[in-house]
Amino acid sequence: MKPLPDGGLGRRKRTDRAFRVLASVSAAAVLLSLVLILTVILWKSVPALSLSMLTRTPKGGFYLGKEGGILNAIVGSLELAIGATVLAFFLSLPLALYLNVYKARTSKTAVWTRFFLDVLWGVPSIVYGAFGFLLMLALGLRASLLAGLLTVALLEFPIMSRAIDEVMRLVPRELKEASASLGATRFETAVKVLVRQAAPGILTGVLLAFGRGIGDAASVLFTAGFTDRVPGGLLDPAATLPLAIFFQLGTPFPEVRERAYASAAVLTLIILLISLAGRALGRKVTRHVVK
Question: Is the pTM here over 0.90, yes or no?
Fold first, then answer.
């Protein structure tokens, strides 16, 4: 083994120490930012948070400081995000399986498909909102839960597709070859081997897309509309928590702005609960993964 030159070991140790300090500072900055955001949101929302606010719809003059709650926005956000996530999942999973089972990793189709998905992932959500608005007019729809759902599904589709695709690319090739050697068809290999092996990662991708969908305001600004009522059907307009925050923060009344922070706290809590539920479910799914 060739000996290190004079001072080489010391230089490597200094470099390692410098990167360790840099990584620690970065981690501390991220953690501090998260704590600061949560603290400010919770502190600002405490005066307005109450059970009646969560269980009632707005009354007349809600945006002028009068009575009511945000039940309409909570229900609208959940219906819109869950529906969009389910729709995006049934588009993303077949696409990821097609790229990883039926196409070679270096084929032009796979390479270009991944490239376009990456481009779509980086497109600002307001662009999806504008496209969804045109799609809504083309389909003869009004601002409604359905129009917002379709737009958010388009927003989530590239995120979920690329996340599932990357997870499936990590599945050892030997497992697929072993399945094929036992006489399984490509479809059987895809469903019984690839999906089962990548299930924890697929769940993470779904949660990632759901979090983006339920927290986005720009994509539903023109398509979902806003209403003081809980939507009774797909063609009814739907209120969402991001839009409730947007509208309430713009008023000159302090009590209404407090409701905006309360809406932000509720939105954060929903994402936290769903993330915890996803992690618990992920641990159960991981038991079936071959390591």
Answer: no
Measuring CA to CA, which residue among 233, 241, 274, 276 is closest to residue 260?
241
Structural contact between residues 154 and 132, judged by C-beta atoms closer than 8 angstroms: yes
**Structure confidence by residue, pLDDT tens digits, 69-123:** 888 899 999 999 999 999 999 999 999 999 998 888 788 999 999 999 999 999 9
Count the Cβ atoms, other than its own, within 10 Å of residue 103. Answer: 15
Distance between CA 207 and CA 196 in Å, rounded? 17
**Residue 43: helix, strand or coil by DSSP?**
helix
- DSSP letter for each residue of 207-247: HHHHHHHHH-SGGGTTTT---SS---STTS----HHHHHHH
Token pair 């999942």 in the structure block, residue: 89
Gyration radius from the chain CA atoms: 24
Task: Please state, in angstroms and rounded to a whole number, the distance separating the CA atoms of residues 165 and 118.
Answer: 12
**Alpha carbon of 116 to those of 16, 87, 121, 159, 263: distances in Å?**
38, 20, 9, 12, 35
CA distances to 141, 219, 221 from 133, rounded to whole Å, are: 9, 9, 9
Tell me the per-residue pLDDT of 7-66, one tens digit each, with 9 for 90 and over: 677 888 888 889 999 999 999 999 999 899 889 888 888 888 888 888 888 886 666 667
* Contact yes or no for 205/164 (Cβ under 8 A): yes
Name the 3-class secondary structure at 250: coil
Amino acid at 191: V
CB atoms within 10 A of CB 262: 26
CA distance 27 to 25: 6
Considering only CA atoms, which of 184, 121, 115, 113 is closest in space to residue 156? 121
Instruction: Provide CB contacts within 8 A for 88, sequence distance 6+.
Output: 153, 156, 157, 160, 209, 213
Contact 213, 81 (CB under 8 A): yes
Residue 137 in tokens: 């007019």
Report yes or no: 156 and 210 within 8 Å, Cβ to Cβ: yes
